[in-house]
Amino acid sequence: MSKEEKQMELVCPAGTPAALRAAADAGADAIYCGFANETNARNFPGLNFSPTELADGVAYAHAKGAKVLVAINTFARAGSIGLWRQAVDDAAACNADAIIAADLAVLEHAAEKHPDRRLHLSVQAAANSPEAIRFYSDTFGVKRVVLPRVFSVPEIAALNREIDVETEVFVFGGLCVMTEGRCSLSSYATGKSPNLTGVCSPPDHVDYREDNAGRLLAQLGGFTIDSFEKNTPAGYPTLCKGQFSAEGRTGYLFEDPVSLNAFELLEDLAKAGVTALKIEGRQRGKAYIAGVVSGFRRAVDGLATGTDAGPAIAALKTFSEGGRQTSGSYKKTWR
Amino acid sequence: MTATKRIELALGPCFFNWSADKLLDFYARIADEAEFDCVYLGEVVCGKRMPFTDTVWPQAIERLERSGKTVVLSTLAQPVSKRERNILKQQASYDMPIEINDMSLLPSREARPFTAGPFLNIYNEASLAFLAKQGAVSWCPPVELPLESIQQIAALVPEVAIELFAFGRLPLALSSRCYHARAHGLSKDSCQFICERDPDGMNVATLDGERFLAANGVQTLSHACHVAALTRDHLNTSGIQRLRLSPHMSDMVAVSNAFREFLDGALDAAELEAQLEGLELPGPLCNAYLKGEAGWKKTSLPA
Predict the structure, then answer these.
(1) Most buried one in A98, A207, B211, B300, CB count within 10 A?
(2) Residue range B9-64, pLDDT digits in tens
(3) d(Cα B164, Cα A114) in Å, to the nearest integer?
(4) Is the pLDDT of residue A176 over 80?
């Protein structure tokens, strides 16, 4: 069967063992998760897995026919690489199906010590071109690359014609506006960033206060970057989705507070040779996981059976930031 | 005890959309008047700008080399289009020093020497050691990497020369979206090269009216101007051989002179900062990334 004809794999997030079970029950083909430390890019309090929880999660997922991919996708801290190497060894010991990594040091360790374990290139590696992707596959045996959100669908199709490895693309959830893995905006405001500490716009640096007109002002690191009228829902001040003023105008300079939903493009992505579809949201609860995974399960199956998943996907709007959605960079006009 | 070593000065690549004439004048003056040991040049931010400056580089390189400076071709940080990728392949084969800012370029360099630029995600000793095996002889760390980490890496990978980003607006982020175009109601494909209006970047302020960031096409920089006022002794013990000053509209000859005097012990840190503040910098001074704190802050550094 050619790359184009195969049904696309649905890759779903899990921040907790309960979310992992919910994803497996809702029909995920694969579930990605991370350890409860700074080795993964969703290093939030109360989230993620111990090695024992991961081993149990792998057993549960495998019984349901789903794979488990372990994200060890931050950049190892100087002098502490042992923590990242240990995470790779633990993931292998838990019988995880693949390791998702970005750091050269982590990739090198995984390739040397666990050559039979599947290795996926994290979006944090920002592999933008066939040359970069071939470098990672030739050097470390990477089998799949999670594409940074810089490509339009025709560009993904062209890319797939030039590479031998599988591609995985984001289809739903929070949307990085900057190229993943190449953004230090968060540490500039707060001292913490995805690459340094596995967090972006961390909650312990967020503050809300009311101004004289009763509007709620949202601050990150002491910078006021959003404002909400009285009695309207207040959003979270993620740095790249804040309001700023430039050239005499105030607004969402980088991106509106929207979430990605590429449902309408699934058929195009299949034709473009994409192997796997990724749902963002390891920080989200069970209801989100169950709802989004089953909606996209129906959508992916619908590509083969012709069943309309439109209503199921429309119901996911409540899970999107501010209830608003975009197809992001997949349409060239986004740029 | 090792003897005190002279710290070299490098001029980083210009991030902004300066006209061909402005670039030629700029590098001519750098060649004639500034005490840089090394000059990085080339378009790093946006492939769309390349056709306008292609003719600049051979002339600038010739002029700078004649003045005894080492010239390094700095390369595109986010190549995507076929044209951009072909340009990178050509550049990799040049018989001159190059700086790699994207992993795309690594295979075509075929293990010949290169500088690992600040846009590569090198955060630890093992990843730098890996790049050293691939030909990295010099490394400019990502701007958010704390000095403590750089010191640890320097001690463990002594074969790579370390060049610290020491002056200028901090390059913080890259995107596929052009914020200059977006701010002017345009798209990247029809951008009209509007970024040329802001030779130090477009000011971006918070809702409190506080200047915070600077947009430069697909790149976002800090509003504040980073200054690493680390003494020669401190740099020596940290394993840092060179400081990188990033071009701005400020008088870069005066900036480099101030740094040279500081590194040679003729100015102290406070005097260096005072001199720089008199030079119409694009923003207030900052330096706290070096201590692992929020990058916009200004903190006291150990002498």
Answers:
(1) A98
(2) 999 999 999 999 999 999 999 999 999 999 999 999 999 999 999 999 999 999 99
(3) 35
(4) yes
Q: What is the pLDDT of residues B104-124, one digit of tens each?
A: 999 888 888 999 999 999 999
Chain A CB within 8 Å of residue B125 CB: yes
Domain spans of chain A, in order of start: 9-175+258-334, 185-251
Q: Using a CB–CB cutoff of 8 Å, tell me whether A241 touches chain B.
A: no
Whether chain A has a CB inside 8 Å of the CB on B96: the answer is: no
Model confidence pLDDT, tens digit, residues B158-181: 999 999 999 999 999 999 999 999
Q: Which two tokens stand for residue A208?
A: 């809300």
Q: Could you tell me which of B24, B28, B114, B118 has the C-alpha nearest to residue B69?
A: B28
- This complex has an ipTM of 0.97
Given pLDDT bands bounded at 50, 70 and 90, which one contains residue A120?
very high
Count Cα atoms within 13 angstroms, Cβ side, for B246: 27
C-alpha A333, offset from chain centre: 22
Whether A4 shows a pLDDT value over 50: the answer reads no
What does A44-106 look like in DSSP terms, one character per residue? -TT-SB-HHHHHHHHHHHHHTT-EEEEEE-SPPPTT-HHHHHHHHHHHHHTT-SEEEE--HHH
Structure tokens at B202: 């477009």
- Is the Cβ pair B102, A335 closer than 8 Å? no
Q: What is the dihedral of CA A52, A53, A54, A58, to 10 degrees?
A: 110
Strand partners of residue B71: B39
Confirm or reject contact between A40 and chain B (CB < 8 A): no
Q: Is B46 on the interface with A (CB under 8 A)?
A: no
Token pair of B240, please?
């840092």
Chain A contact for B208 (CB, 8 A cutoff): yes
CA distance A13 to chain B (A): 24
Token pair 């024992």 in the structure block, residue: A52
Q: Min CA distance, B190 vs chain A (Å)? A: 10
Residue whose token pair is 């409540």 = A318
Q: Cα distance from B81 to chain A (closest Cα, Å)?
A: 8
d(CA B70, CA A290): 59
Report which of A55, A297, A163, A139 is spatially closest to residue A147, judged by C-alpha positions: A163
List, in order of start, the domains of chain B with CATH numbers: 8-170+225-291 (3.20.20.70)
Using CA atoms, how far apart are residues A191 and A13, in angstroms rounded to an integer?
26
A and B: number of Cβ contacts within 8 A: 213
Structure tokens belonging to residue A71: 């994200």
Q: Is A61's pLDDT higher than 50?
A: yes
Would you state the pLDDT for residue B299? 96
- CA-CA distance, B169 to B296, in Å (whole number)? 10
**Residue in B106, B107, B123 closest to A78 by CB:** B123
Residue pair B285/B60 in contact by the 8 Å Cβ criterion: no
Are B206 and A224 contacting, i.e. CB atoms less than 8 angstroms apart? yes
Three-state DSSP at A281 gives: coil
The set of residues, in sequence order, having a beta carbon less than 8 Å from that of B121 and lying 6+ positions away, is: A75, A102, A103, A124, A125, A126, A181, A182, A195, B127, B142
Instruction: Give the span between the Cα atoms of B22 and B277, in whole angstroms.
Output: 24
Decide which of 3.40.50.620, 3.20.20.70, 3.40.50.720, 3.30.465.10 is the CATH code for A9-175+258-334.
3.20.20.70
A3 or A133: which carries more pLDDT confidence?
Answer: A133
Retrieve residue A16's tokens.
Answer: 């907790």
